[in-house]
Amino acid sequence: MVQGVTKQVLCVSDVAQFLGVPEADVLELIKKKLIPFVQIGETYRFYMPALHDWLMAKPYPINDSMIKTAISDMQFKNFADKYLEFVKENRAPKTLENAERVIRLATELFGEIILEKISLEHLRRYVEERRKNVSTATLSIDVRTLKAAMQLAVEWEYLQENPFKKFKNIRQERRAVKFLSRADMDKLLSAVREEYLKRLFIFAVLTCMRRGEIVFLRWDDVNFELRLINIHPADDHRTKFNKERSIPISPQIEELLKSIEHRGHYVFVNNKGERLLEDFVTKRFKAYCREIGLDESIHFHSLRKTGASWSAANGATPLAIRELLGHSSVKTTEIYLGVPSDSVRDAVERIKFNTPAE
User: Of 29, 141, 213, 246, which sits most exposed with the smallest number of CB within 10 A?
Assistant: First the structure.
């Protein structure tokens, strides 16, 4: 334990007094995530075991230049840990999964390099290695992830400039968007044996919502009075980029939702009343697609594209569809009011099945 300190939990003033530095320096360490701390509301707490380990690991004296020294000594692998912690706290699980894969591979190549010495050449080396084993699409995602990570290092003031900024994004061959025709959708629904999955697949088309948004949808997020479905980050689910948006409830969406028995907090549950898992939904959808002989390129995300395609075919504007999909911001007044524009409601109501949803 740290000599002279008997408390197990310290506040900012305690740490500043012990280190012999102004409280502002401790706050700067917190800002740059260079010291172990826990945030509780608007206050910061330091637990002695973690603080002790941190102090023992410092090869330099704690003085006025400690922050600058800590940053200049930081290796990429140390930054990587902080970056992944940030992604875990602020991004969706799928984004974290991708970031962990990319950062692990990057750390294998240049993890020991001092962060300030990372250059464009390191990214080129990464691309050369990855190009041997992955598709252009995957490689493009990897490059964007690493560029975003280093940009965060700039925002955290670990770096003055993003060393990967000038690397051009990998060009991808544009492929036609895969979606289901009405005949394919009817064939698929006829094959689905679980009624709760049939409803979920129909709902995915009608709302253009993402898989995670659907399986984590709670009844509290469905407002029949305002005719809105509210999509937002929650303790058990992160939306893409932590964004919030609202989906208007069309007559067919309302009919479908009101046909579902309330069995707990979540809208879509199995026969035991348990929330559906994302992987289960994906695998069952793919199994049914193969069972009826649909193209292998069709996957669950295709339902979202199917809804958008049907809406466009029925006359919805591209702007309305982009807002519905959450690919662009709504107008400032609409954000303020917390409701979608009339054009988005119009886009949703243009997505219809030929017969009422079961």
Answer: 141
